[in-house]
Amino acid sequence: MPTLQRPSRPCKECQRRKLRCDAQQPKCGLCQRARVPCEASPAGKRGPKRGHLNALRNRLMQLEETLQNRLDSEQRPQEHVQGLHHSLDSTDASQSADFLRGDVGYGDPLAQAFMLSEPSMAGDFDNLGLERFRFPDLAVSLPQIDRGTHAELDQLYFDRVHPSFPIIHKRRYLGWSKSTAKSRSQACLQKVMWILAVLLSTQTRDLINPLYSQVRQDIDLIIMDTSPCQLELVQAWTLLTVCELMRAMYGQAWASAGRMFRLLQGLRYHEIDSPREDPVASEGMIDPIRTEEKRRVFWMAFLIDHLLSIRNRWPVTLSEHMARSPQSSVTEPPSPDTCSFNECIIIATVSGRGLLRDVHGTISEAYGGSRQIHIDHDEWLNLVLATRNKALRQRDDPDRLATFTQILGQVTEILFCKSLMTMNKSTSNENCTQEYRCRALRAAEKIVLFATDLTALHFSMVHPFMFIPLFVTAEFLYENRALGDGAFLTQLRNLVGILGQLTNVNDLERSYLDLLSRSCISSSRGVLEQSAQQT
Fold first, then answer.
1. Apex CA 96: angle with CA 91 and CA 98, to 5°?
2. 166: burial class by Cβ within 10 Å (0-12, 13-18, 19+)?
3. pLDDT at 518
4. Which residues cross the membrane (predicted)?
């Protein structure tokens, strides 16, 4: 059959792959090589989608109404305070101020822990002893980013952020980075990447707040859309959670993490390596790079989930049992060729099993399970931890993620020993308790040695989540500071000194100690008091 030129549009397959179609009949060259049906793509309708203009008008009316309501609410407190000011004498004024502060609950410790700023009213409220109230900006003007700054931020991200969070394929991203036809999810992802790049830099830090405000507004609008979720949206949620943790916005970070976990589960990314046939798994045969990005974003969320559980003593949300279990990777001998990200996931998996050991033991005993099963599980954890931590210490010239994994492995050892110390204390087995106490102390000493090396590095070379394992270690040492003939207290003082030297990326003028005051863990206040005694 002679080859004819199709006078119509490109075929669906070429359009899906974003390739140029040679429009040959009966099949184009790509479809003929791929042995798939060749169908011409339907003609697209010109102009906006039906109902789009009405939706824009409705959105504009909502914004105008919101703006007017906020302006009215800003004026009403001022008018109300003027009446109070004329009716109260100077003696009652301070009492009224205290009452108003207590009435709204902004002085509550839980509110402060969730980073709620204390509001106050403008104008005459200053006479009542209250601070100025800062209403949130309805719209934050985003500075114009030229091509030079654009390229610099992209490069900064892959130089300083990507080594710690390797979930973006660089070449694939750079292919659409400067395109004017980006999807909303891609534009949102790009802004989050730029925020992280600026956080690990000393330049253009004035972009952080405008970019963050724009991202929060855009990502909420995208998530409410009924169109299918794109991979870039999942990546944006993941990196947004990272950004909020780095900025010590813990309450917002926990909420973002929850939405990220549900989004991953809804898209069934946990089944990406499932042996059964499903759309997510079969896609890997068509686009292996995109499949690898989905796999990595799931395991990064898995890591974040376990870090939050370690930090706040919460149950994990993304269990290893919902995905293809990395059992073989955990139990097989460590290889020096294993990449840092995989090794970090393995350590997080082991830590998750350690977090669940008490729960599993209680459930097993409640249903008549054997005590021996619990003992066997502890022995398995003990062996895996010893093997993994030994292999991690033997790595030559570890990168920032490998160093983070080394410290996380020792923290897992501390938490494992802490759990066994608690169990043996209830059984009055003092010998075993002393053994696990010594093991935990040795692990803390290794963490202090690792952390000492971090003080000589530029803050961008330290993993942004390093504060999590260091804080857990400091709190454990504080809780046991009276034990070990002062050995725990000595290591606590050493670690507190190191925390005072590590730079807080959210505020380059402050250290990790500033983050302790924003923690919800009660032991953090004790560590902070210890640092005050040392200074």
1. 110
2. middle
3. 72
4. none
H-helix or E-strand spanning residue 510: strand 507-511
Mean pLDDT of 53-80: 68
Only one residue has tokens 């330049």, namely 203
pLDDT in tens, 357-416: 666 655 555 555 555 556 666 777 777 777 787 777 777 667 899 999 999 999 999 988
Residues 492 and 395 grouped into a single domain: yes
Phi first, then psi, for residue 509 (nearest 5°) are -90, -5
Domain of residue 433 covers: 326-534
| Spatial distance between the Cα atoms of 525 and 520, rounded to a whole number of angstroms | 9
Residue matched to tokens 């507004």:
217
Residue found by looking up tokens 């009542």 in the block:
128
- Dist. CA 141–CA 183, nearest whole Å: 21
Question: Is residue 182 located within the same domain as residue 278?
Answer: yes
* Res 252: pLDDT: 92
Q: Using omega within 30 degrees of 0 as the cis cutoff, is the peptide bond preceding 10 cis?
A: no
Confidence of residue 94 (pLDDT cuts 50, 70, 90): very low
Contact 307, 241 (CB under 8 A): no
Cut 0.85: pTM above it: no
8: how many CB neighbours lie within 10 A of its CB?
11
pLDDT score, position 9: 75
Q: Are 236 and 377 part of one and the same domain?
A: no
Q: Does residue 439 share a domain with residue 334?
A: yes
86 and 217 part of one domain: no
452 part of a folded domain? yes
Number of domains within the chain: 4
How many angstroms separate the CA atoms of 115 and 317, rounded? 24
**152 lies in the same domain as 245:** yes
Query: Is the pLDDT score of 96 beyond 50?
Result: no
